[in-house]
Automatic annotation (TrEMBL):
Designated name of the protein: Putative nuclease HARBI1
Described purpose of this protein according to its UniProt entry: Transposase-derived protein that may have nuclease activity. Does not have transposase activity.
Organism placement in taxonomy: Eukaryota, Metazoa, Ecdysozoa, Arthropoda, Crustacea
Transmembrane segments: none
Organism of provenance: Homarus americanus (American lobster)
Keyword line: Cytoplasm, Hydrolase, Metal-binding, Nuclease, Nucleus
Entry annotated with the keyword Nucleus: yes
Residue span(s) of domain DDE Tnp4: 115-198
Keyword Acyltransferase attributed: no
Locations listed in the record: Cytoplasm; Nucleus
Required cofactor names: a divalent metal cation
Gene Ontology molecular functions: hydrolase activity; metal ion binding; nuclease activity
């Protein structure tokens, strides 16, 4: 309740500013919020509260876009993969403003993800790292065979998770146009979506109804990296 009161107070103050904010999570049902932003009202307000100190540091302009609008714009982008200029047109913002918002929110979430996200397994399309275990290409011992069998079972769960993740955050899915950015920015957006997906699971946010089938995954074997990754895998 305190979050709602704080939001309404902030909205009342910002009415005097030049930017007229068309996004109003208070007057939208949770069903539609989950459909378009992937979170219900209480979780959106919670996220706004958590990101508020960091976003304010990045937007010290006298007519800055409200924090909740920045969060909603970023969530809408993650949920749909909509082009920035189209998203800007729907909320009365320029493409440049939408780009800055997505960049800032993504950067903050990526920084948080560094401490909360772990990548335990990968298929042969990934390089072997100390933090990322891949299967043996040519297992030659009973232990390596058992490892590959266990790894396969784990990968089934991972693949299912990827399917749910790409359905929840359509910017990662081919139906959303995929990510048309440089690799560094793509990696940050993926990490942000991973973090938000974990939040959905921890807070039991239901999946949206418009789930799509997974679009598959290309398996391009990567060369194993000698060193700590091999040592960790051998120990496993």
């Amino acid at each position: 309740m305190e979050l709602v009161v704080a939001y309404l107070h902030d909205r009342a103050l910002r009415r005097e500013r030049r930017y007229r904010d068309p996004l109003d999570p208070i007057n939208i049902s949770d069903e539609n919020l989950i459909r378009y932003y992937r979170f219900p009202q209480c979780e959106i307000l919670r996220l706004c509260e958590e990101l508020d100190p960091f976003l304010r540091r990045r937007t010290r302009r006298s007519h800055a876009v409200p924090i909740h609008t920045q969060v909603l714009v970023a969530l809408r982008f993650y949920a749909s993969g909509t082009f920035q200029h189209v998203l800007g047109d729907t909320v009365g913002l320029t493409q440049a403003s939408v780009s800055r918002i997505i960049r800032d929110v993504t950067q903050i979430l990526t920084e948080r993800a560094r401490f909360e996200i772990k990548m335990p397994t990968g298929d042969s399309g990934y390089p072997l790292e100390a933090f990322l275990m891949t299967p043996f290409r040519n297992p030659s011992t009973p232990g390596e065979v058992r490892y590959n069998n266990s790894h396969t079972k784990t990968r089934v769960v991972v693949e299912q998770t990827f399917g749910v993740l790409k359905s929840r955050f359509r910017c990662l899915h081919r139906s959303g146009g995929s990510l048309q950015y440089d690799p560094s920015k793509c990696a940050k957006i993926v990490n942000a979506c991973f973090l938000l997906h974990n939040y959905c699971l921890m807070r039991r946010v239901p999946l949206p109804h418009d789930i799509v089938d997974d679009d598959g995954e290309i398996d391009n074997p990567a060369e194993a990296v000698a060193g700590t990754g091999q040592a960790v895998r051998a120990n496993v």
